[in-house]
């Protein structure tokens, strides 16, 4: 499951189409939700986490898909770096983080490494991708890393905390999607590099 989550994160870093990247993030969240439900025992908070993750896996990509449909790009936004460079940078950052960060105290070291990899991948996606929607997806990938860590904690985290986090994330994604639409409306593209030319 952890390998699948990280692989889907790398997929978001590499693909060019916003719709495909949105689908990959949705599948990533579904895998995380199913994993939480699989680990849930009787009375465990992981069952609540699993349900929340499954609902989130459908709601967030739906918001972004609507935004993507409203902001059709005249052509694919050319990435400033090739897919190979993005892959190498993301891999390097993930490996450095995995080696530099000490153990977080969980019994499952693979879950810790996977969570760190997703967090670093999300940050790298935000830093290296130009379309605003892909940058929002990077935030969700990083947040999936945090959720992987939370699911790995014995007993999970309290449901109230999870609901608060999901509410905050939905709010952030909704606002980001609205900003993406405004950027597209003003500039004719969701390419955030065009914002560098704006002057007061």
Outline the structure in words.
It is a single chain. This protein has 200 residues and is mainly alpha-helical. It has one domain. 74% of the residues lie in helices and 0% in strands. It contains seven helices and no strands. α1 packs antiparallel against α6, α2 packs parallel to α6 and α5 runs antiparallel to α6. It is globular, with a radius of gyration of 17 Å.
Structural shape: globular
In whole angstroms, the N-to-C terminal distance is 48 Å
Work out the helicity level.
Answer: over 70%
Largest sheet entry: none
Order of helices and strands: HHHHHHH
Low-confidence stretches: none
List keywords for this structure.
single chain; 200 residues; mainly alpha; globular
Which helices and strands occur, and which strands form pairs?
Layout: H1 2-14, H2 18-39, H3 45-70, H4 83-100, H5 109-128, H6 132-152, H7 159-187
Helix pairs in contact: 1-2, 1-5, 1-6, 2-3, 2-6, 3-7, 4-5, 5-6, 6-7
Summarize the structure.
With 200 residues, the chain is an all-alpha fold.
């Amino acid at each position: 499951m952890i390998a699948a989550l990280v692989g889907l994160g790398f997929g978001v870093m590499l693909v060019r189409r916003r719709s495909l990247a949105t689908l990959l993030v949705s599948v990533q969240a579904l895998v995380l939700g199913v994993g939480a439900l699989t680990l849930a025992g009787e009375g465990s908070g992981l069952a609540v986490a699993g349900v929340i993750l499954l609902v989130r896996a459908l709601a967030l990509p739906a918001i972004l898909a609507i935004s993507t449909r409203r902001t059709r790009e005249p052509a694919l936004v050319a990435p400033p770096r090739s897919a190979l460079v993005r892959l190498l940078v993301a891999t390097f950052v993930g490996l450095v983080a995995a080696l530099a960060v000490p153990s977080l105290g969980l019994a499952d070291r693979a879950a810790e490494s996977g969570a760190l990899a997703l967090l670093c991948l999300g940050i790298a996606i935000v830093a290296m991708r130009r379309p605003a929607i892909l940058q929002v997806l990077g935030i969700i990938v990083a947040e999936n890393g945090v959720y992987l860590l939370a699911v790995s904690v014995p007993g999970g985290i309290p449901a109230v905390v999870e609901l608060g986090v999901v509410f905050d994330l939905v709010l952030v994604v909704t606002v980001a999607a609205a900003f993406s639409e405004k950027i597209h409306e003003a500039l004719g593209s969701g390419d955030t590099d065009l914002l560098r030319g704006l002057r007061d």
